[in-house]
Specification:
Blueprint lengths: L2 H67 L2 H79 L3 E5 L2 E5 L14 E2 L3 H11 L1
Antiparallel strand pairs: 1-2, 2-3
Helix pairs in contact: 1-2
Organism: Pseudoxanthomonas japonensis
Protein name: Relaxation protein
Length: about 200
């Protein structure tokens, strides 16, 4: 493999890793923001409940005072209405708190899943890249051996027949004895004998 292609591949893999890291960081930041929002909502709910308790206490005191000042049935009715309103507010706040808690759990699992998938993709991509690079290096080794052998041999055409310049003592071409003739008839006879 050419060094420029290998560098390009490594650069692309680095960009992919940086992109996945950025996505993981964004997912973690989103999760943290959601957790902070949930915590802020819980604080608001707690304050609302405390204000409701204070309001109920004040209204109860006011109702007692009114009951003493006015008729007892009117005070009792006012206390009942206040209690019903407060019960309604408390129920509503509890439902909101349960929904916020459920949403926070969902966002937590979603973020965890996204991070897991991103990490798995990163590991799988790195593994594939490593395997592919090993395959390419093995092919490059074979190609290098062939190129090394070709540096010690001259291949040409000798009167229409292929010939190779090799060591002494082998059958030579009559017009230039530096070249050895290649016997191609053995291959042809073997192919014809196999066809029979």
């Amino acid at each position: 493999m050419e060094p420029s292609k290998m560098e390009e591949f490594v650069a692309n893999a680095a960009l992919l890793a940086a992109h996945l890291t950025e996505q993981c960081n964004k997912a973690a930041a989103t999760q943290q923001t959601s957790a902070q929002e949930l915590q802020a909502s819980a604080i608001v709910v707690r304050k609302t409940i405390e204000e409701g308790k204070r309001e109920m206490s004040e209204q109860a005191r006011s109702a007692v005072h009114d009951a003493l000042a006015q008729e007892i049935p009117a005070a009792t009715h006012s206390i009942g209405e206040t209690a019903a309103r407060l019960r309604h507010v408390a129920d509503h706040l509890q439902r909101e708190q349960a929904q916020l808690s459920q949403r926070a759990r969902f966002l937590g699992w979603k973020s965890l899943g996204a991070l897991s998938v991103a990490c798995l993709a990163l590991v799988a991509g790195s593994g594939y890249a490593s395997w592919h690079n090993v395959q390419r290096s093995e092919r490059a080794k074979v190609d290098a051996e062939v190129l090394e052998a070709l540096q010690h041999v001259t291949i040409t055409s000798c009167g229409g027949q292929p010939c190779i310049k090799l060591q002494d003592g082998l059958p030579r071409w009559q017009k230039n004895d530096q070249y050895v003739l290649i016997d191609t008839s053995v291959k042809q006879e073997g192919a014809a004998g196999g066809a029979r």
